[in-house]
Amino acid sequence: MKGKFITVEGCEGVGKSTQLRLLKDFFEREGIDALFTREPGGTPVAERIREILLDKKLSVSPIIEAELFAVARNEHINNLIKPALEEGKVVICDRYIDSSLAYQGVARNLGIDRVYDINSYARDNCMPDLTIFIDMDPAHSWRKQRGTVILNDRMEGESNEFHALCYKGFKEMCKREPHRIVAIVPSEDKNATHEAIVNEIKKKGIVC
């Protein structure tokens, strides 16, 4: 495809949203045609699935959860990500397949390989050119350090043990796919973290 696909991953409260906002400002300043999107979501259908997945009032089994994420992802790929890449755009996605591998594969104990199989369409047709993993243990996240409590959805409201397993899952993916995933330990200076991310994007030749 003509464009490039970047995903940004990390546990809850580690500054991922801040870094995505800084990246958006960077691409706008550089005059680069970039599309920012998120998972689950990105299209009307996927956003409706997001509502189900993150609804605190619902109880969803691990396997159904994994399958719903995959269905939303396939919809997202076909109706937003791939068309944008074919137009030559840079696509930056807040969470993607690695979140499923960490959250459902490891934290929900389905197994990374099984969740990869559930996401075979994404695995075989639309893998990122670069994944930025903000490498911060959720037990010491900025949110924890500041004493901020945000329970916006079912995932954020999970136990500390669950989020520790998610972190373990992300670290395992870093070991499995070092050619694609770059771990960046965030600094207290958000601009320093942003600069480190931009440097990795430049190394991949996505921007000059």
Overall description:
With 208 residues, the chain is an alpha/beta fold. The protein has a single domain, classed as Rossmann fold (3-Layer(aba) Sandwich). 53% of the residues lie in helices and 12% in strands. The protein has helices at 16-30, 44-54, 62-86, 97-107, 112-118, 120-125, 142-146, 160-176, 190-203; strands at residues 4-10, 34-38, 90-94, 130-134, 181-184. A 5-stranded parallel sheet has the order 2-3-1-4-5, sandwiched between helices. The longest helix has 25 residues, at 62-86. The chain is globular and about 45 Å long. The protein starts with a strand and ends in a 5-residue tail after the last helix.
Topology (elements, then pairings):
Layout: E1 4-10, H1 16-30, E2 34-38, H2 44-54, H3 62-86, E3 90-94, H4 97-107, H5 112-118, H6 120-125, E4 130-134, H7 142-146, H8 160-176, E5 181-184, H9 190-203
Parallel strand pairs: 1-3, 1-4, 2-3, 4-5
Helix pairs in contact: 1-9, 2-3, 3-4, 4-5, 4-8
Keywords summarizing the entry:
alpha/beta; Rossmann fold; 5-stranded parallel β-sheet; 9 helices; 5 strands; 12% strand
